[in-house]
Specification:
This protein is mainly alpha-helical and 151 residues long. It has six helices and three strands. It starts with 8 loop residues before the first helix and ends with a helix.
Length: 151
């Protein structure tokens, strides 16, 4: 098998399982992404190498690469004087991922406010719990945004 990068099989399997769950990826997409995170020297992995390494059909590899590109988990580059595309893990993905998380929390806060304004029944215990929850969301948003500004 012609591998351009070295991987640790156990860490690779752990990564496949982790990213499959956390990023909700199908098995082959999770394998491709996990394989790419071992490309520490940023040599890039070609389409043909994925087909060979994973003994997968070209259509399966193509479908899963498209999914990863569309979700911004990976990027592709054409090197000068070569027709082949090289694939890399997207270093900006962690930032993109947390920006999406912040947006979801902001959307939830907006929805909670709309529901609260619509609600006719007064319930002090519910209101107190909701304020604690909204405070947690707001603190989390600020904390993540401060960290994102450092990336």
């Amino acid at each position: 098998m012609n591998k351009s990068i070295e991987i640790d099989e156990k860490i690779f399997q752990d990564a496949v399982k982790f990213y499959s769950n956390v990023l909700n990826l199908p098995p082959l997409a999770s394998k491709i992404y996990s394989y790419l995170i071992f490309d520490f020297e940023k040599v890039g992995i070609t389409f043909d190498e994925f087909v060979e390494v994973f003994s997968a059909s070209k259509s399966s590899v193509s479908t899963n690469i498209s999914l990863l590109l569309n979700s911004q988990l990976i990027i592709d580059v054409n090197k000068m004087d070569e027709r082949k595309r090289y694939f890399f893990a997207n270093d900006d993905y962690k930032k993109i991922r947390f920006e999406k998380i912040v947006q979801k929390m902001q959307d939830e806060l907006k929805l909670l406010d709309e529901l609260n304004h619509f609600r006719k029944v007064k319930d002090e215990e519910y209101d107190l719990k909701m304020e604690v929850y909204k405070s947690l969301l707001n603190k989390s948003i600020v904390n993540i945004q401060e960290s994102l500004n450092k990336l």
